[in-house]
Write a structure and sequence with these properties.
With about 850 residues, the chain is mostly helical. It folds into 2 domains: about 475 residues, Glycosyltransferase (Alpha/alpha barrel), CATH 1.50.10.10; about 180 residues, no CATH class. The protein is about 40% helix and about 5% strand. It has 27 helices and 19 strands. The strands form 9 sheets. It has a 3-stranded antiparallel beta sheet. A two-stranded antiparallel ribbon has the order 1-2. A two-stranded antiparallel ribbon has the order 3-4. β1 and β2 form a beta hairpin. The chain is globular and about 95 Å long. Its cofactor is Ca(2+). GO terms for molecular function: calcium ion binding; mannosyl-oligosaccharide 1,2-alpha-mannosidase activity. InterPro entries: 6hp_glycosidase-like_sf, Glyco_hydro_47, Glycosyl_Hydrolase_47, Seven-hairpin_glycosidases.
Length: about 850
């Protein structure tokens, strides 16, 4: 029994102790110096360091996938060689250029006067709107356009203003990670590149946004949360349940982050951002052949299980568009360092040609194409699926995408497809009631894509099917709804200032030089300006199928950031943001992007079963647990040949094939330059090698030359070698080998460090010292299973290997696309495109590609 007086004596120290324990342990934040949290105001720091830089992930990635280094000169020239214009043509062009610029400055002034530092200005009422977090979306999104148009004073004023942006303050409880990425991260990166890196604050803000968005990837499988409760993430403590990716995610929102995150890694030299999006695309690669329409990905996917086989709706329009658009542009941005994006694109394009692209029935029998929709119940054979002839303004990006891919991947026949797709959207504008294509419409599709003559009766039948409850005649329905001939229904009559059509027209014009497209663009521009201009800016239309359409009180940021930018570039000199030049005026020859320096010391490659080393232009097969390749050994070698060999091997491995090998059961093999037998076997080698192994499989360099030739033809000459049983046994190790090859190809950077391939077998490495005198291949015995070196690190550790945790596509599905072995390198400027990013350019590459 405690007497009352003693209870009172003990009560005070007990309460004090409880308070101390609570503040030290129970309320401990996940951030080292988090000190306040309130709704709408995330967290602030007194030391000025980015709050999100101190985010402590529950699922850390210790060995990020490194950004590949581009190989120069591998993409052909993209842009058409334009002839010199005469004085009269120049006068017309300059007048049009000033007209576009004048409309931009009109809308920009409306934003400055009515909604400065807000996301958008309402072009009728003048209200300030903040649908994207309140971080000045229009300002950030429009920076590259300001620079391209020569509005440098406005540009510098905007750059000064962004220093005030506080990404610890958000007007929303939940942000769209995709929208935040393309507007803010892409906006900062594009402006930083287009202005030749003269404004460091732009990169600083890009890194700040990248650090914030990277926290959305802190999930068990590292798939991002696309609709992210940002305040909850910031407020998490060690006791808070972990974040998890969604089970129903729009495919565009998870698959369209690659360009911005990759460019951020290139500029910041921080591989984490590239690693984050590369993991996503590895999952997309693994699932591409397993969906209900192999080659395409459904509109909705399960990011939590990473299994895309259940969904049935497919389109390249809204909710999916930018996923496909990014594939050739990411290939260009990486400089052709990986065949992955080429493979993904080619297989997707083949499926589009079979199931998505359709020819509409038109009165003039126009040879045009539109992208449509298709669904699969999983029971109907894929070859019998019917395309729904539903055309979206969003899908007008496809013409530019295919035109770009035709040049980047050396597929000239695809340029005809691109022309038909662009002509389809031009047809949509020219036949629209106001001369503007609506948001969504249904067309009368051709039953035979090659023979498609106009039939008035069939068109009427399609209209009757679209409006079964219409009381009047079909002619009355057509008149009442202002349906153009060939259009059976207008599902959504809005026009919201979208850029996709003019973007594709611009891209095709710069590639082909077709002067007809310039006149088309001028007509489109005048029609749009006529119907959308307000006293404050430009407004979207609620219904472009009626005379005097009512206006929307909204001007989205892409009007200034993209639509007017492409109209301006249509009438600018061809070397302004040339597809072959740095991404801005040819009068400024500073190259945007300088690839990271090649590593001077070692490449670290890890695989438990086998190793491939490329020295002296020969692929040497090694079976040590890991391999250190002395960088100096490669200096006398032709690196393009090394990488070519790596590509060829990687492609065969992706098909489930292996290099023929000889098995040796000797305990020890020592090779030196003084050994005559070894010298005979390795005639081309410039180094000495000491290798010790027990019961190991090995192949000499001279044998490897024959092995590689056999390796590249074996599948056709001896198909029985790859039986189904053999493939099943090999498949489990293929992703690791493939990942290792990518690492060998791309890991030659970041001086003095080793790049660790993340798909690696477990256990602790046994370190070896490398000396200048040795310059030999070394063995590192084993690799740790877990990330993190210290005991205090969170213990939720991933073992990244998406291709073994997900079913591998069957060979007949994988073979959907053309398996090109072209090693064309991607040049890019990060400047063109609706997905923000401007001006990225690889220094030595000859061709450039616009990326959004």
């Amino acid at each position: 029994m405690i007497y009352p007086k003693y209870g009172r004596i003990l009560l005070f120290p007990f309460l004090c102790g409880f308070v101390v324990v609570y503040y030290l342990f129970l309320s401990r934040p996940r951030f080292a110096d988090q000190w306040s949290m309130s709704q709408g105001a995330i967290i602030q720091h007194s030391d000025g360091e980015s709050f999100w830089a101190k985010y402590v992930p529950k699922y850390p990635v210790r060995a990020p996938i490194p950004v590949p280094s581009a190989i120069p000169g591998s993409i052909p020239a993209v842009q058409h060689r334009f002839a010199r214009e005469d004085a009269a043509a120049r006068g017309i062009r300059m007048a049009r250029l000033e007209a576009v610029k004048g409309n931009f400055t009109h809308a920009w002034a409306g934003y400055k006067n009515h909604a400065w530092m807000s996301d958008e200005v309402a072009p009728i009422s003048g209200r300030a709107n903040n649908p994207f977090g309140g971080w000045a979306a229009t300002l950030v999104d429009s920076l590259d356009t300001l620079w391209i148009m020569g509005l440098h004073e406005d540009f510098e004023e905007a750059v000064a203003a962004i220093a005030e942006l506080d990404f610890t303050q958000c007007s929303l409880e939940e942000i769209n990670v995709f929208e935040t990425t393309i507007r803010y991260l892409g906006g900062f990166l594009g402006a930083y590149d287009i202005s030749q890196h003269k404004y460091p604050i732009l990169l600083e803000k890009a890194i700040e946004v990248g650090q914030m968005l990277y926290a959305a990837f802190d999930t068990p499988n590292h798939m991002p949360i696309t609709r992210w409760k940002i305040n909850n993430a910031a407020a998490q403590t060690s006791a808070t349940p972990p974040q998890e990716a969604g089970e129903s995610v729009l495919v565009a929102e998870i698959g369209s982050l690659t360009l911005e995150f990759t460019r951020l890694s290139q500029l910041s030299q921080d591989d984490r951002y590239y690693d984050a999006v590369q993991r996503i695309m590895d999952v997309f690669e693994a699932q591409q052949g397993w969906t209900k329409i192999p080659g395409l990905w459904p509109v909705v996917v399960n990011a939590r299980t990473m299994d895309f086989r259940d969904s049935s709706m497919f389109t390249i329009g809204g909710m999916a568009d930018s996923l496909y658009e990014y594939l050739p542009k990411q290939h260009a941005l990486l400089g052709g360092a990986s065949q992955q994006y080429e493979k993904l694109y080619q297989q997707a394009l083949d499926a589009m040609k079979s199931h998505i692209f359709f020819r509409p029935m038109t009165p003039d029998d126009a040879n045009v194409l539109f992208p449509g929709d298709v669904s699969s119940d999983g029971q109907t054979p894929v070859s019998q699926l019917k395309t729904e002839p539903r055309a979206q303004h969003l899908s007008c990006f496809a013409g530019g995408m295919v035109a770009l891919g035709a040049k980047v991947f050396a597929q000239p026949a695809d340029l005809d497809v691109a022309q038909q797709l662009v002509d389809g959207c031009i047809w949509g504008y020219e036949n629209g009631h106001l001369g503007i294509m609506p948001e969504v419409m249904h067309l009368a599709g051709c039953e035979d894509q090659t023979q498609c003559s106009w039939s008035e009766k069939r068109w009427h039948r399609e209209v009757e099917k679209a409006f079964p409850d219409s009381a009047g005649s079909v002619e009355a329905t057509i008149r009442a709804r202002n349906l153009p001939r060939g259009v059976s229904k207008i599902d959504d009559g809005r026009y919201i200032l979208r850029p996709e059509a003019i973007e594709s027209i611009f891209t095709l014009y710069r590639i082909t030089g077709d002067a007809r497209l310039v006149e088309t663009a001028w007509t489109m521009f005048n029609t749009i300006i006529k119907h959308t201009t307000t006293e404050i800016g430009h407004a979207g239309l609620n219904d472009c199928t009626v005379d005097n359409p009512p206006k929307q009180d909204r001007m989205e940021s892409f009007w200034l950031a993209e639509t007017l930018k492409y109209f301006y570039l249509m009438f600018a000199e061809p070397d302004v943001v040339s597809l072959d030049d740095p991404g801005f005026s040819s009068r400024v020859r500073e190259k945007f992007h300088r690839s990271p320096p090649l590593r001077k010391s070692f490449v670290f490659v890890e695989d438990k079963s086998r190793k491939y080393d490329f020295v002296d232009n020969e692929p040497a097969h090694w079976t040590a647990n890991s391999l250190l390749v002395d960088r100096q050994k490669l200096q006398h070698s032709d690196e393009s040949q090394l990488r070519l060999a790596c590509k060829l091997l990687s492609e065969r491995i992706d098909r489930g094939e292996t290099v023929p090998e000889k098995t040796a059961t000797t305990s020890t093999t020592t090779t030196s330059t003084s050994s005559s037998s070894s010298t005979d076997q390795k005639k081309d080698s410039a180094t000495s090698t000491s290798t010790t192994s027990t019961t190991t499989t090995m192949t000499t360099a001279s044998q490897n030359a024959d092995s590689l030739r056999h390796f590249n033809t074996r599948s056709d000459e001896n198909p029985s070698v790859d039986s189904a049983e053999d493939k099943a046994k090999k498949r489990h190790s293929m992703p690791v080998i493939s990942e290792m090859l990518r690492g060998l190809e791309t890991g030659l950077r970041d001086e003095g460090t080793k790049s660790e391939i993340s798909a690696i077998p477990p256990q602790q490495p046994q370190q070896h010292e490398a000396t200048t005198q040795q310059k030999t291949r070394k063995t590192i015995t084993q690799i740790p299973t877990t990330d993190g070196d210290d005991d205090s690190a969170p213990q939720h550790i991933e073992q990244y290997d998406p291709l073994t945790s997900i079913p591998t596509a069957p060979d007949d599905a994988v073979s959907l696309g053309r398996r090109k072995t072209s090693l064309m390198r991607r040049m890019s400027f990060f400047a063109l495109g609706k997905r923000k990013t401007l001006g990225h350019y690889h220094q030595h590459n000859k061709g450039a590609v616009a990326v959004k």
